[in-house]
Design brief:
Blueprint (H helix, E strand, L loop, with lengths): L3 E7 L2 E9 L4 E3 L2 E2 H4 L3 H14 L5 E8 L3 H19 L1 H10 L30
Parallel strand pairs: 3-5
Antiparallel strand pairs: 1-2, 2-5, 3-4
Helix pairs in contact: 2-3, 3-4
């Protein structure tokens, strides 16, 4: 199998993933998964598509993560892995991933701050006198 690549985004995080047959090693920015994501919940988010399809020990994954926070990066990586698995075997993996909502790009972004107020929607306290 040749190397399959895919892209995932969440908030301002971008994940580029390269999937190859292997033993289940996940490398992110040159570091192993356990070292990059310290929390169990984040590691669970990243491994979700592999767990659902039963391919945890079948593929080696190299990922380049950029931008955003740690949670956004984990969710961008999850989307990228799910998209790569769909490219590998569409008939087998796509229905499982789609029914669990892992192929949907979460398009919510942070709303910009408006001039003359402290946040995007928050106003300064009104004073009548």
């Amino acid at each position: 199998m040749e190397v399959i690549n895919a892209l995932g985004r969440r908030k301002s995080a971008v994940a580029r993933v390269y999937v190859n047959t292997g033993k289940g090693n996940v490398t992110i920015n040159g570091r192993p998964l356990d070292e990059y994501f310290k929390e169990d919940t984040l590691r669970y988010i990243v491994k979700q598509p592999l767990d659902l399809t039963g391919t945890l020990a079948s593929f080696d994954i190299k990922a380049n993560l950029d931008g955003g926070g740690i949670k956004g990066q984990a969710e961008a990586l999850r989307l990228a892995i799910a998209r790569a698995l769909c490219k590998i075997d569409k008939e087998a993996y796509r229905p499982i991933l789609k029914s669990n909502g892992l192929l949907t790009r979460d398009a919510r972004e942070v709303e910009r701050k408006k001039p003359g107020q402290p946040g995007a929607r928050r106003r300064f306290q009104f004073s009548k006198r």
